[in-house]
Please model this.
Amino acid sequence: MRKRLEGKSVKTAYLGLLLALAVICGYIEALIPVPVPVPGMKLGLANLVIAAVLYLYGPVEAITVSLLRVLIIGFLFGNMFSIVYSMSGAAASLISMALLKRTRAFGIIGVSALGGVVHNVAQVIAAVLILQGFPWRWYLPVLMLAGLAAGILVGLADRIVLPRIYAEGDY
Amino acid sequence: MQDNISKYLRKTDIVLIIVLALIPCVMMAFNLIPHDADRARLEITADGKVLGIYSLAEDRVIEIGGGNTCRIEKGEVFMSHADCPDQICVHSAHINAQGGSIVCLPNKVILKIISAEIGADAPDVIASWAEKGTPVH
Model:
């Protein structure tokens, strides 16, 4: 099964496909209204794809796809500030997920849950650095809980989908 | 059901999730401790500069030069207008003496309830849009 995902050109094609999927996830997410009055709260659909790349390929491929996704989404729909916010969140969450996965003690749901929390913590830190006086005391815990919930849901979805793409993975 | 959960979640995952859920709960509990509701004031900040500190007691409309307008009505504060595309601050929940804040990220405007200790030595109403560029404090 893994053979089907590897080989230079096959891998390139798959990663391109997954990158396109991640970009579309970000776009679809922007269309879904968030029923909560807290800016920055969202589902993190793109993380569905990024966590999948992390498990199907590895940290290097996942970082590549994640950074390209942030740049593409940022140039298409955002501005410099949104790129800084997204980049800090994406980078921190991916690094934490890759490290947690390396311990082999946790499943994809735990890894994704940590990624969701770290993503939002990093974004709050970025907001504190950019905006002096950002009221992080309330935002941080609320966004941590939101990130946790989103991370668990995304991890659960990956846990269900990934074994059907590549059965031998350690999810 | 028990089977399903153990199929997807490892024990370590459950421990991790509980720890990750507890941290923010503890932080929120800390946030709840001190609050001098009677003397709470509204602090308006734009781009890191404090533009003014207002009492919640009297109703008023405050124009914030970056394209935002906020109102104080019956002890509640809300953003009544913003020129940014997302309108997140306009749709944010109203805040009152209990605390809270409304943030407009595109315009870098923050409305925040501050307690009496911070506002005690500052005058009630000060400065419109950073005319002299000097923060009030």
